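It is worth pausing here to work through a concrete case rather than discussing structure prediction in the abstract. The textbook approach is simple: state the sequence, then state the predicted structure, then interpret. We follow exactly that order.
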Amino acid sequence: YSEIEEILSTDLVPGDIMLIPSNGTIMPCDAVLLSGTCIVNESMLTGESVPVTKINLPNPSEYPKAMGDEIYSPEVHKRHTLFCGTNVIQTRFYTGELVKALVLRTGFSTAKGQLVRSILYPKPTDFKLYRDAYLFLLSLVVVAGIGFLYTVVNSILNEVPAHTIIIESLDIITITVPPALPAAMTAGIVYAQRRLKKIGIFCISPQRINICGQLNLVCFDKTGTLTEDGLDLWGIQRVENARFLLPEERACSESLLKSEFVACMATCHSLTKIEGVLSGDPLDLKMFEAIGWILEEATEEETALHNRIMPTVVRPSKQLFPESKQATNQEMELFELSTSYEIGIVRQFPFSSVLQRMCVIARVLGEKRMDAYMKGAPEVIASLCKQETVPVDFERVLEEYTKQGFRVIALAHRKLESKLTWHKVQTINRDAIESNMDFMGLIIMQNKLKQETPAVLEDLHKANIRTVMVTGDNMLTAISVARDCGMILPQDKVIIAEALPPKDGQAARINWHYADTLAKCTSSSPAINSEDIPVKLVHESLEDLQMTKYHFAMNGKSFAVILEHFQDLVPKLVLHGTVFARMAPDQKTQLVEALQNVDYYVGMCGDGANDCGALKRAHGGISLSELEASVASPFTSRTPSISCVPKLIREGRAALITSFCDLPL
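Step two, the predicted structure:
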């Protein structure tokens, strides 16, 4: 590596090969990983402060079957891409080989560059008050001009001295257009800004305070805004002989210690150790902590010794084993043997949002045959299992949990053939492993609402301020949280709009179905549906006309298809859309713009960098984080709770009334 040289990050160009230092770095550009693996914190872009593992792009010459004729795309191959602005925490590499990445994009072309561009050059926010104020001032100037001319002409005719004419004429202008008007209009804003500072809300764009007084719709991010950041393990429900057992609260009981269910929880994750501390997806972390096992990773010395990355090993902690106080020597020997029970993770197929699952190949110490463990979305896992192992009441049980707002994950297992060796496993296709699995049961996770959320949303509803949820999370979980926090009332119905792009010569279409029954709600013609459903929304409202009986919900993919192919439907859908799930950062901004186009004054409350564009675009953006989001947002709350929203609207209304009262002056 004599050709290695150190240059400034500004001199990097696409096509350069850069080396990632072992102790990590902040990425100065978008790059694709060519060798080694990296642990990266992508919170700057995604808002999720969970380190993700990036693996190198497979070499087509070594693995021709793995890649096929695939063309690289940063969106599709996110697992291999290091994005600009993200923090590489740690790298792992083969002996004698450095961690290398190929520079793809630099400057404003990168993912971070586009985000910065949207912050620097947002679309100007048009506010009616200021428009009307200018028109009012213009009309005063016209009146003053007429008075000025009349006075001058009249004074000249009456042969008044020149200096008297000048003084009297200028008097008319200052009387008609008060010079103190701008100062008087600013006074209300200044006092409102002081009061906001006292309650922990900081403002970098004071003129937006007036606009907040007119907000009639507020968009909320879900995770970390309406709900707590993490998930808690509520319980597990195992399956034996294709029947669900009763739900169990703990997964670390003695009887389950060597069960396939616990082995799957111990191995099927993407956790890693960073400076001795377990790190990774919070869901994986909670799942692993629930069983009380220990994770051990190979050191760099061991990796160098064996000339390949050694497998991660998991084993139960000694406290989990039942200890016998008065044990014979023979029994103690057996106990020693039993405590050496450990599982090595041989290969990992990372979680894919497209496939909605992850899979690992593992081997129990001393066993010849390897095991495949899989976890993911219950419907997907069940479809990949032998049907005779899936309980007949699977859909009913799953629906009960999702309706209650639980996040449900299904587990499956399969014993692999003995002919599959270490080397074969390293090159085997994912599809060959993920089939004919045995269904093992469900893990039920709970995402708790923040204590103050329901009360704040109730206050907003009483004030006739509409609330909308915009989240990157799963659709059913989002709908359930919306029901729990009172955004959707128990008697209200939710219609999911599922838009499909044009495919194989078929035109784009929208399928409508109810969220609770999943039954198609009208005939196959989307043109009739799109006209009928919004009409029903208006006429079938409850006693309180403000509370609509029907709510629309859709995911990011459907939203993109509707924006592209059903432009005429966008106003109708955003007028009654309450839940927008799986939304990308730019889609959140597009939604805010669509709401503004139907004459809403939109507030946005979020906590992640993925909310930056929407926070900047909204009439009133409130960030609950003091990190990247606060740079883009006009308002930042010191307390990470949505209770700041009603306070801001109150102060905005107070400042707005003051400004209105000042205009006649």
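Step three, interpretation. The first helix runs from residue 43 to 46. The radius of gyration is 31 Å.
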